[in-house]
From TrEMBL:
Its EC number is 2.6.1.11. Binds 1 pyridoxal phosphate per subunit. Belongs to the class-III pyridoxal-phosphate-dependent aminotransferase family. ArgD subfamily. This is Acetylornithine aminotransferase. It comes from Sinorhizobium saheli. Pyridoxal 5'-phosphate binds at G98, A99, F131, D216, E217, V218, Q219, T274. Its cofactor is pyridoxal 5'-phosphate. The keyword Endoplasmic reticulum does not apply. One of its GO terms (molecular function) is identical protein binding. The gene is argD. It is found in: Cytoplasm. One of its GO terms (cellular component) is cytoplasm.
Length: 399
């Protein structure tokens, strides 16, 4: 047991202590400024201390913090109505996290079939490399042994198939299958994109077999790809979708969105949350939508993403011994490294730039959606210096 902290030893935390943030910058206790392209793992969608979010939170804090869902919460009605107006959905259930949103999505899909007289239909097809959360059900859904090991038998009802393999999906469907669950872009799995064609084929399979299509847009949603939700690029409509991270702009907030048909089985008493949809979260969520749905905002994301993509492609060309591949879409980008990604991450942090590790030896770049072209170029310059440092270190080691 660690003698230095009373916290669980479940994180290998970097020895960095941040005191405050300003836009895309984080300021450490010693005054050092870091360019934050981690954004709290895609959570701080509008950067740090965004004035509109701060104002909304302060105003609500002076009124009421918590009511529970025993009463009507006007902010819930407002945020849910706005979300249904701009998405496929008719119904919304608010949660505190992405894992809770996924739990609600899984329960909604299973309850849909139960209500139609098919309780045997509870299996969900998921994909290798997926990450859907840390609860007992969502680690089973993700299927990665490193997250399942040591927590008893894997929760039943989940079956993994290779990512992008439509034949494997079709072969996995049987009389117990309820739904297909997929991240349009795998985050933890290494910034792996599901192609538009694959998402369209999944939608068609669900229609053919009477299954529900569940999308996990916890990380890739809420403007991160340059559209409000990533699946819009494929021109499809899911039946159920889990959302979190960016929707709260840093405040704990998640949501499960569903069509009327998909949510029909979720009647009074079938699900609940004490804190879900609390007035503070609703105030911030509505403020986030004010900004992201404003004219020109998503176009700005697409413009800055192009600057990033071009700059990263140039870095790959100039550092082929350090960078193997550039992945991602919008402002959800990944650098697959040829060197250990831990070495590249250390070099990046030495340049006062923050990124996030992922699977397949990938570093994620998840800058706030408010990042300017100038800030993107500053980040690229720091990445270039980090790549040069790694190359020099590798050369010295080889010598």
């Amino acid at each position: 047991m660690s003698a230095t902290t009373p916290l669980y030893d479940t994180y290998l935390r970097a020895p960095l202590r941040f005191e405050r943030g300003e836009g895309v910058w984080l300021i450490a206790e010693d005054g050092t400024r870091y360019l934050d392209f981690a954004a709290g793992v895609a959570v701080n969608s509008l950067g740090h201390a965004h004035p509109h979010l701060v104002e909304a939170l302060k105003a609500q804090a002076d009124k009421v913090w918590h009511l529970s869902n025993l009463y009507e919460v006007p902010g819930q009605e407002s945020l849910a109505r706005r979300l249904t107006q701009v998405t496929f959905a008719d119904r919304v259930f608010f949660t505190n996290s992405g894992a809770e949103a996924l739990e609600c999505a899984i329960k909604t899909a299973r309850r849909y079939h139960f209500a139609k007289g098919h309780p045997e239909k509870f299996h969900v097809i998921t994909f290798e490399g997926a990450f859907h959360g840390r609860t007992i059900a969502t680690i089973a859904a993700g299927g990665q042994q490193k997250y399942i090991e040591g927590f008893g038998p894997k929760a039943p009802g989940f079956y993994q198939v290779p990512f992008g393999d439509i034949a494997a999906v079709r072969n996995a469907i049987n009389d117990e299958t309820a739904a297909i669950l997929i991240e349009p872009i795998q985050g933890e799995g290494g910034i792996r994109l599901a192609s538009k064609e694959f998402l369209q084929e999944l939608r068609a399979l669900c229609d053919e077999f009477g299954l529900l299509l569940i999308l996990d847009e916890v990380q890739c949603g809420v403007g991160r790809t340059g559209k409000l939700f990533a699946h819009e690029w494929a021109g499809i409509r899911p039946d159920i979708m889990a959302v979190a991270k960016g929707i709260g702009g840093g405040f704990p907030l998640g949501a499960c969105l569903a069509t009327d048909a998909a949510a029909a089985g979720m009647v009074a008493g079938t699900h609940g949350s004490t804190y879900g949809g609390n007035p503070l979260a609703m105030a911030v969520g509505n403020a986030v939508l004010d900004v992201i749905l404003a004219d020109g905002f998503l176009e700005h994301v697409r413009d800055v993403a192009l600057v990033f993509r071009q700059g990263l492609a140039s870095l790959k060309d100039r550092f082929p011994d350090v960078i193997e591949e550039i992945r991602g879409d919008g402002l959800m980008l990944g650098i697959k490294a040829k060197v250990p990604s831990t070495d590249l991450l250390a070099a990046i942090r030495a340049e006062r730039l923050l990124a996030v590790p992922a699977g397949e030896n990938v570093l994620r770049l998840l800058p706030p959606l408010i990042t300017t072209a100038a800030e993107a170029r500053e980040g690229l310059a720091r990445l270039e210096r980090a790549a040069e440092a790694v190359r020099s270190k590798s050369g010295d080691a080889a010598a």
